[in-house]
Design a protein that fits this description.
The chain has a two-stranded antiparallel sheet. It is about 45% helix and about 10% strand. It folds into two domains: about 1-65, no CATH class; about 75-170. Helix 4 packs across helix 6 (about 150-170) and helix 5 (about 125-140) runs antiparallel to helix 6 (about 150-170). It is mostly helical. The chain contains six helices and two strands, in the order ββαααααα.
Length: about 170
């Protein structure tokens, strides 16, 4: 079925969508190639908006019109990750904050890498590991560095290293 251009007195094939309302992309009219060019030349998304509304739109566009959260926000991804990493749901570390890794146990390369990523000594106890993790998260959090992917990736490595060290501690 052929769609006819919705420009007045035009009988061409309407293949191109033109918005009828600024905020409703589902409400559109179909235009032919000639008329969509005319429509696009005169289309002004900001028509009828105040200076304040335009500035608010542009500011919101910086974050793809999605709300941002501060580091301490309860629904911030890194805050959730941090809280889960620090939680002791099985009460393994409840009364023993000086737990050491059994030095007689040979550390594999993955264990050693986890210590290196967090800049720790191989015999540091659990309380030192926790303190170091908190310090590193604060230091490398992307919100502190304008959303830098470099810092975000570093923080992911630190979190994985911390999770690995936590598993080592549970094995003891």
């Amino acid at each position: 079925m052929k769609n006819i251009c919705e420009w007045s007195n035009c009988k061409e094939d309407g293949k191109f969508k033109a918005p009828i309302e600024r905020d409703n992309i589902r409400n559109f009219k179909l235009l032919c190639k000639t008329h969509i060019k005319l429509f696009n030349k005169s289309w002004n998304y900001f028509n009828g908006m105040s200076q304040y509304e335009i500035e608010s739109f542009i500011k919101s566009d910086l974050t793809w019109h999605r709300p941002t959260q501060t580091f301490g926000s309860s629904d911030n991804f890194f805050s959730i990750l941090w809280n889960n990493a620090l939680s002791d749901k099985f009460k393994i570390f409840e009364n023993d904050n000086t737990r050491h890794i059994n030095i007689s146990r040979k550390l594999c390369e993955k264990d050693k890498d986890a210590f290196r990523i967090m800049d720790l000594r191989f015999n540091d106890d659990w309380s030192i590991i926790q303190k170091k993790f908190k310090t590193l998260v604060k230091k490398f959090h992307p919100d502190k560095h304008s959303g830098s992917k470099k810092h975000e990736n570093k923080l992911k490595k630190i979190t994985l290293a911390y999770s690995h060290l936590k598993m080592i501690m549970m094995e003891k």
